Amino acid sequence: MIQQKLRGSGVALVTPFKLNGDLDFDGLGRLIDHCISGGIEYLVSLGTTGESATLSKEEKLEVLNFTIAHNKGRVPIVAGFGGNDTRAIINEIEGFHFTGVDAILSVSPYYSRPTQAGIIAHYKAIAGAAPRPVILYNVPARTGANMTAETTITLSGEKNILGIKEASGLLGQCMQIMMNTPKEFLKISGDDNLTLPLLSLGFDGVISVSGQGFPKAFSQMVREGLKGDFEAARKLHYKLVDVTDMLFAEGNPGGIKHVLEVLGVCDSHLRLPLAPISDGLKAKIKAATQAVNV
After folding, report:
1. Does 208 map to a domain?
2. Phi-psi bin for 228: left (phi > 0), alpha (psi -120 to 50), beta?
3. Is 165 a catalytic residue?
4. pTM here?
5. Interval 192-218 mean pLDDT
6. Which listed residue (165, 187, 257, 282) is catalytic?
7. Does residue 10 form part of some domain?
8. Is residue 42 flagged as an active site residue?
9. Which of 20, 39, 179, 205 is deepest in the core (most CB within 10 A)?
10. Is residue 250 a part of any domain in this protein?
11. Considering its fold, how many domains does the chain have in total?
């Protein structure tokens, strides 16, 4: 059952680049292996952390196809198909083969700031066209508009809508979603440092940024939380909490890419308009990364 396959820790993979800005498939392969060997339950390709906004249509296909091929069926894959043009998203979905993809992650429309009725109609249209189940993604800090609990509750009853990645940071909203959606509707944290509190409320896991830097510790924390062993989970949570905050101090994915560079997984190059993080933050992240991995 797909709900069980996507319970636990997913990671929103970065897209490694070479110094000249080209895609770095060797680095992406190392990253995928690093996550899987570290115990991550599933991979998310072409999310915000993957700098999908700066990838061409052809590059997106290359990244997703490479991820599917390199994964070799080892773990489930969730593919990002989102934007603020409903028709364009549907066209992209209809043009992809979806072999090796288990679900779609689709961010709530950004920039245009639709009403809640517009968000509902948008997701109904995507779910109706998608050959795989759809995970909603609410991240108002990026989209400029919160998808309310009422909207999520309404959509949770729609055919082909599997769950939500909830990154509002609003615990009250998360509790309303938890209480008023079907049990089989996946509730996934979109905030790394709120994952453990949300697990205590009944959430099913996380789609994480920091988990790809520290897959063993992070995925074990989630597994302990899902088992209800919050004493063991807290130890790992507090081991990671400071470095996780650092990762977002100057924007994402600059912080996590520096962790991966420190670990020798891939380089930390970004595409404009994202700029490299400061030297001071790099030093702090390097020290914190080495401390976590002692």
Report:
1. yes
2. left
3. yes
4. 0.96
5. 98
6. 165
7. yes
8. no
9. 205
10. no
11. 1
